[in-house]
Amino acid sequence: MFTGIIEEMGKIKEIRKTAKDYEVVITAHKILTDVQLGDSISVNGICLTVTSFTATSFQVDVMPETIKASNLDRLQVGSSVNLERAMAANGRFGGHFVSGHIDTVGEIVERKHVSNASYFWIKTKPEMLKYIVSKGSITIDGISLTVVETKDDMFSISIIPHTLSETVLGERQAGDQVNVECDMLAKYMDRLLEARLSGTGTKGSQSTSSLTMEHLMENGFV
C-alpha cells in the first residue's frame, strides 16, 4: 500500500530483457536507507518487489502482465522514475490509498501553464471515467493528485511547481503516456453497487427484476 507522495526520482540504470519479462536496475538514494529484499517499491505507480540491491541501486523483476498494463516498456536507460516506499504504519498519510496496480495507460493530449500551475489533459479509456470525478483522487505515474475536470474520454489535473520539479511530470509533454490508477474506493463501491443491483451479492439481495425506485431510495442509491 502506498500514499502517492513521491519520495524521490530515480534513474533507470540497466534494463535486461528476457523472452517475456524484464529485469530493471534503478539508481536511488533516499529509499535505499532501509531497503530489504522483498520490499515493495512503487516505480511510476507500479508496485514492484526488490530482488537485489546495493548502496546506490536496486533491482526489480517486471512480469509480462505489468509490461502490458503500464508504460514501463517505453522506459530507457537514463529515464527518470518516481519512487515511493510502501506506507509505514507510523507514517503520515499525505495522499490517498494507492495500491500500485495500474488500471490503464493514459495519453497526455495537452499541457498548458496557467499562473503558477500546469494543467494536463489526459485521455484514457472511456470505461475508466466512471471512477474519475471532479475533485476526486487519482494516481498518475504514482503521484496522488486531484482531478480538476472530466470529459467523455479525458480528464484534467493541475500541478503545482513543487510537484513538477520533484516528479517525472515535469518532463512529460503532449503525446507522452502515463500510468493511471483510479481511486480504489470508487472501484470497490462500483463493484458492491453492481453486485447489489444484479442480485449477485450477499444472501438476501434482491434481483434486478424486483428493484423499484422506492427500494433504491431506501438503500441510498438514489
UniProtKB/TrEMBL annotation:
Renumbered ranges of Lumazine-binding repeats: 1-96, 97-193
Gene3D superfamilies linked to this entry: 2.40.30.20
PROSITE patterns (UniProt xref): LUMAZINE_BIND
Keyword Transferase: yes
GO molecular function: riboflavin synthase activity
Domain Lumazine-binding: 1-96, 97-193
Pathway where this protein functions: Cofactor biosynthesis; riboflavin biosynthesis; riboflavin from 2-hydroxy-3-oxobutyl phosphate and 5-amino-6-(D-ribitylamino)uracil: step 2/2
InterPro entries reported in the protein's UniProt record: ATP_synth_asu-like_sf, Lumazine-bd, Lumazine-bd_dom, Riboflavin_synthase-like_b-brl
The reaction(s) this protein catalyses: 2 6,7-dimethyl-8-(1-D-ribityl)lumazine + H(+) = 5-amino-6-(D-ribitylamino)uracil + riboflavin
UniProt-listed Enzyme Commission number(s): 2.5.1.9
Keywords noted in UniProt: Repeat, Riboflavin biosynthesis, Transferase
Protein role: Catalyzes the dismutation of two molecules of 6,7-dimethyl-8-ribityllumazine, resulting in the formation of riboflavin and 5-amino-6-(D-ribitylamino)uracil.
Record protein name field: Riboflavin synthase
Annotated source species: Caldalkalibacillus horti
Lineage of the organism: Bacteria, Bacillati, Bacillota, Bacilli, Bacillales
